[in-house]
Amino acid sequence: MGKSEIIIIIIIFNLFFILFIAGIVIFIREYKLKKKEHSVMLLHQKSAHQKELLTTQVEIQEQTMQHIGREIHDNIGQKLTLASLYMQQLAFESKSPKIKDNIENINNIINQSLEELRELSKSLTDNIIETSSIYKLLNTEYLKINELKIFKIDFNCTNKKLALPYQLKTILVRITQEFIQNSIKHSRCKLITIELEELENKIMLTLVDDGIGFDISKIHANGIGISNMKKRTEMLGGNFDLKSNPKTGTQLSITFSL
Fold this sequence. Notes:
- This protein is an alpha+beta fold.
- It contains seven helices and five strands.
- A hairpin with a 5-residue loop joins β4 (239-244) and β5 (250-257).
- The termini are far apart.
- The relative contact order is 0.08.
- The model has no long low-confidence stretch (mean pLDDT 79).
């Protein structure tokens, strides 16, 4: 075998070796790309599954409340109405003024309870969140708290006609309710501020109290409500930003892309 033939064989061998190495590099790169794509796909599937679970959970809650509302109206309400009729008959037949007064008092209590149950039944069977705007829903919460006169509460909304999906409205309302309840129970605040802003393609809900605050690092021990708020926000792809320090109050900002 001549020298030139050996050189050609070496060159061919080197070419095959280079092609082999290049093939391995391409294979590894494609493998990493496929692995990354698979991870992204799994992440999207997980996110979609969480949203589906949240939707199902909300639907079950609404169906349960509607069922309870119908039971209150059809069962307990009818029994109280019947009891009220019996009391009226006893009052009519009774000759003793004292007994008649006692029966009248019991009848008044039954009628008051009946009226309260009717209001409760109506609130449970009516799908208020689905039929109302987010402004109206948050304004209702503001008015309820304002009537208590426990502290001052402010509510601002940049777009009163803002239309949002049912799930998003549900989460914003529930988080507002949870924040207000926490402030009432723990913060000793004098002012709560609710602010709903529409910023380009985003919606931001900001909740602030001027109370005593708390150490955020310790919420894992007793912050079930906060954990639920954070989980609900993230399940719909939102951003949850909680800031609080002892004696400086608490601020919660929830941001969603529209």
